[in-house]
Amino acid sequence: MHKQRLAEPAGQEDGRPLMTKHETSFPDILDVAALRARCSFIASAHAEHRDLMRQALLAAFKQANLDGREKARELLARDGSGLKCAERISWLQDQLITVLHDFVLNEIFNAANAQPWTRIAVTAVGGYGRGTLAPGSDIDLLFLLPVKKAVWAEPAIEFMLYILWDLGFKVGHATRTIDECIRLSRGDMTIRTAILETRYICGSKELAEELETRFDSEIVKNTGPDFIAAKLAERDERHRKAGDTRYLVEPNVKEGKGGLRDIHTLFWIAKYFYRVKDSADLIKLGVLSRQEYHLFQKADDFLWAVRCHMHFLTGKAEERLSFDIQREIAESLGYHDHPGMTAVERFMKHYFLVAKNVGDLTRIFCAALEDQQAKQLPGFTAALSRFTHRIRKIAGTLEFVDDGGRIALASPDVFKRDPINLIRIFHVADINGLEFHPAALKQVTRSLALITQPVRDDEEANRLFMSMLTSRRDPELILRRMNEAGVLGRFIPEFGKIVSLMQFNMYHHYTVDEHLLRAVDVLSRIDQGRDEELHPLAVKLMPGVEDRTALFVAVLLHDVAKGRPEDHSTAGAKVARKLCPRFGMTPKQTETVAWLIEEHLTMSMVAQTRDLNDRKTIIDFAEKVQSLDRLKMLLILTIADIRAVGPGVWNGWKGQLLRTLYYETELLLSGGFSDLPRKERAAHAAAVLFDALPDWSQKDRKTYTKLHYQPYLLSVPLEDQLRHAVFIREADKAGRALATMVRTHQFHAITEITVLSPDHPRLLAVIAGACAAAGANIVDAQIFTTSDGRALDTILITREFPVDDDEMRRAASIGRMIEDVLSGTKRLPEVIASRTKHRKRNKAFTVPPAVTISNSLSNKFTVIEVECLDRTGLLSEVTAVLSDLSLDIASAHITTFGEKVIDTFYVTDLVGQKITNEGRHGNIVARLKAVMSDEADEMRDRMPSGMIAPQHTRSVTGAKRAKAES
């Protein structure tokens, strides 16, 4: 919202300023006189050749438009003002349309001397009507016709439109009389809003002024409340569709919450309700303070700068600030890296702070609107309103009152008298279930400077805060209101540092503060038993957590140290040790919170990247956790953390991994971990499988029980062992060397594909390649060898379809692809090449390839962990390299965090031993980094499909692999 710039056009004689003409011209953008002279020359040179005249006209206008926009881009880079850029482009468009209008009427239709009452008016509507235009935006025009239109009027309009279209402009247009405009605006709020923003460009100014006068008297007068209600409802629906948060890490600058459309909505309401043309008049009316108005102007200018840069950069009307362009926009706006924060993260933090300011100003604006409407109600209606929404006392407080279900201030100086009331107002609202009166929140926002260190250290203020955080009602809602009002960041400055802070990756969907508030909400739902279907174990464990308070504090603060140079988990623990005593927590509680924050990523990483069937994994994790209560709290914190990352990040498969890790660790911590020798436990498992096949012949029972080695018998549930036995026997009876079986897991959100095949070292690489070719994302792999030299591998892929039948068809198709590749019917290089041929490489992110080799994470295997940028076919290529290096993969754990993958492989050499030679370690690292690097990916993209290295296979006996597993 900004000042409308007004000016008289050349030739105006009565001295009255037109209602909406740019006050400032921009001769450095376009030399209008030169363009007019050029048009005159074209008219005289091609007077007898209309087609040549049109072509020359188009060329002249195209060049003028290109030159003008390029100049606008240069000036934007120089002065950085988004509003000025939008005004320059709008002015440029005005001049092009005006010169075109005059040329068409003078040279094409000979209407220069037409009677005044027959002339048309060309006006701008929409964003263009506000005198601002983004480089790629549509041009919305309203052509006003007189009551007695001339025969040339509509053909002239059509001619102008065709020229504008041929120039490449996207033109939204309407041709109406004033009566039609008034009639249509009565019943259509969109048309009413468009006419509200009508701005004269050229032609008959009398028509434009008449429309403004009649619209004001016949439509706007006495209909303010209806218009406000419609615009605010429209805004709420727009926010709902966009995710109802201003903290999406790829925000829509125009339509998103806190974006330009929200500012436009307030402009419409101000213009309609207060009947002002200049937003600066809102200061005189007392709606906004001078400081708030300047904040509004800064927000508007910043958002316009971002939007204009986006349009210039992409060459189109791009409104979504996607990862692909955030770095370049940050660079264009002059941001630089700082310790702990990259330039793009600093830019996006600024963006979200601006979006928050827009929200604050909206709240202040709406409070003023409500007060103004109440004052304008007729006496009887006002009295009835006061009775309906009468002010009631709130038990236990004299500072606040209940105004129709909303907490309001009992007197204007409530906060000045006692700054603790800035915390208390939220507590009272929480315990009484009250919404917030806009005027109260407006006063809160204006009183933030009262929250000083003495307030932060005050025992009562901290007690009230802790009561809200651990409330059994809706702590997230109250904390969100505190954050939106700016109180949370002032009361806890460490939290204030991460307000609006984004993390530049595809994994986190929200800013850090939004993520933390959503995590508190997940914890609250678990605490209330509302998410039992999603988190059965967490809901069961929550009542038994010894220190519920410590868990809530840990969840709120677990990412509070993001954006610092040091590791955020370590730094966060330090912050907790500082804040928890202030909150009134005991030394024991403080250490619990600090430990939870320091280890808040541990359980997730172990569950997703380690072999949970390897006893060493459980022992190492148990040594870190040390107690059952810590284990419970860490599980619940991990769930809240993952759930709050964003939609689609949590799934049942992750839940299953966490439950498995919990149960295995619980057994160890409680002394229930079996000390029986592994051989005895495997023998017992084989006997159980034998007894579970009573309908089979004695021979078959023995044959299929003896197929499996210890790792299989000790890690695969009996239910799956029985399915596998039936699957293998049916394949044997059918004489099939290759077979696949699929099963869906709706709760886990994964699909299981089991492959039976002759064993060879490259088997996982071939299966992974086939899955990549079919577009399937592998999340885990279980690899087993049978005693007769076959592989029984189970691949878990992410689910794509919600309906089981659809997912089964997809899984069966992937299974057939695996069989075709393994049998040689299809060649893997070709199918992968066809899949990746038209892929769009992810250039927004860089993940330096990293390889870690450890012999301490497992007693039997060498653990290789790779970390790099994800891409189609990566797993296939990595596993192929491991096979080239004569490494046998016993298990693989595939984890994706947005654009980054962390894949872990438990391997041995071909005789079942760990890889201990340092020279060989170096070779493994070098070979893996080579295939993971960006250069390798670019070379692969440039290669013809026939040049991609073939996937050779060579056999290895089942005994060798079995030795490694056993």
From TrEMBL:
Residues 1-393 are annotated as: Uridylyltransferase. Its cofactor is Mg(2+). Residues 1-20, 945-966 are annotated as: Disordered. Residues 512-634 form the HD domain. Residues 752-834, 863-944 form the ACT domain. GO terms for biological process: regulation of nitrogen utilization. SMART domains: HDc (SM00471). GO terms for molecular function: [protein-PII] uridylyltransferase activity; phosphoric diester hydrolase activity. Its EC number is 2.7.7.59, 3.1.4.-. Keywords: Hydrolase, Magnesium, Multifunctional enzyme, Nucleotidyltransferase, Repeat, Transferase. It catalyses: [protein-PII]-uridylyl-L-tyrosine + H2O = [protein-PII]-L-tyrosine + UMP + H(+); [protein-PII]-L-tyrosine + UTP = [protein-PII]-uridylyl-L-tyrosine + diphosphate. Uridylyltransferase (UTase) activity is inhibited by glutamine, while glutamine activates uridylyl-removing (UR) activity. CDD domains: ACT_ACR-UUR-like_2 (cd04899), ACT_UUR-like_1 (cd04900), NT_GlnE_GlnD_like (cd05401). Modifies, by uridylylation and deuridylylation, the PII regulatory proteins (GlnB and homologs), in response to the nitrogen status of the cell that GlnD senses through the glutamine level. Under low glutamine levels, catalyzes the conversion of the PII proteins and UTP to PII-UMP and PPi, while under higher glutamine levels, GlnD hydrolyzes PII-UMP to PII and UMP (deuridylylation). Thus, controls uridylylation state and activity of the PII proteins, and plays an important role in the regulation of nitrogen metabolism. Belongs to the GlnD family. Has four distinct domains: an N-terminal nucleotidyltransferase (NT) domain responsible for UTase activity, a central HD domain that encodes UR activity, and two C-terminal ACT domains that seem to have a role in glutamine sensing. This is Bifunctional uridylyltransferase/uridylyl-removing enzyme. It comes from Pararhizobium polonicum.
